[in-house]
Amino acid sequence: MLPMDQKTDPTTSPGSPAVAPVIDLNADLGEGFGRWRLTDDEALLSSVTSANVACGFHAGDPATMRRVCELAAERGVRIGAQVSYRDLAGFGRRAMDVPSGELAAEVAYQIGALEVFARAAGAAVTYVKPHGALYNRTVRDAAQAAAVAEGVRLAGAAAGRALPVLGLPGSELHAAAAEAGLPCVEEAFADRGYQPDGTLVPRSERDAVLTEPDQVVKRSIRLARDGEVTAADGRTIAVRARSLCVHGDTPDAARLARRVREELAAAGVGVRAFA
Fold it and tell me: How is the quaternary structure described (predicted)?
């Protein structure tokens, strides 16, 4: 990870006039399988500007992917491929060791599957975000990060465009994406605990997930407007981000996402897609 202890204003540069901050609001959608549905996709799509759609490896199936793409296209929400380790039983949150070539192919495969349904809905996949264990692994693991970046590059080449990679600032994933010539989009989390180095508190630890609405709203505004957050040890750290995530599988996620968007607007923060 890059140093995260220097505060940075994400809305201004030296000598330039202050401008209103703008941030994207994303959530994980399509996280169901068959008759089982974890996320309230329709309600979330009324609040978010970018939808991280499960591509079948940690959740999601063809019918779900098609439905979410159609809903997102109707509402002008950008469609992103949320790629994962092949782990339906563990919801993509179990540590796995996948050979680099195999992982790159699986990432490209997932993006390509979602692209079919996005195109059928009159839209397209506009970015890629890893999920769960893959997201966390590629923060520090250069080899796995390079494999993900290669998969994104392959899928983008087939589609004729370079797909942006949404991820944690300073991560190995973003280093690998930049090396592969892919745009990088920094992400912050409204409802996750942070460690002092800017990484996320593991879900196995206390206070990894924040569910108290007022706390999540205040954190969202601070991240968007000031580019900073309070880490688990009480230290203030810089988190420069262009997109803010509210997890779709947290309790009452749709209502929370709606409130976050409303409160961001009330605080003078513009909310619009980065893609």
Answer: Forms a complex composed of PxpA, PxpB and PxpC.
The Cα 78–Cα 80 span in angstroms is 7
Average pLDDT over residues 244-252: 84
Amino acid identity for residue 183 in this structure:
P
Q: Which residues contact 273 (CB under 8 A, 6 or more apart)?
A: 24, 49, 50, 77, 78, 126
Residue listed under structure tokens 């409204």:
190
**3 state SS of 190:** coil
Residue 243: band (very low, low, confident or very high) from pLDDT cuts 50, 70, 90: very high
Amino acid identity for residue 237 in this structure? I
21-72 residue pLDDT tens: 999 999 999 998 888 888 899 999 999 999 999 999 999 999 999 999 999 9
The two three-digit tokens of residue 16, written as one number: 């330039």
The two beta strands, 184-189 and 165-167, are parallel
Q: How far apart are the first and last CA of the chain?
A: 25
Residue 43: enclosing H or E segment and its boundaries?
Answer: helix 41-44
pTM of the complete model: 0.91
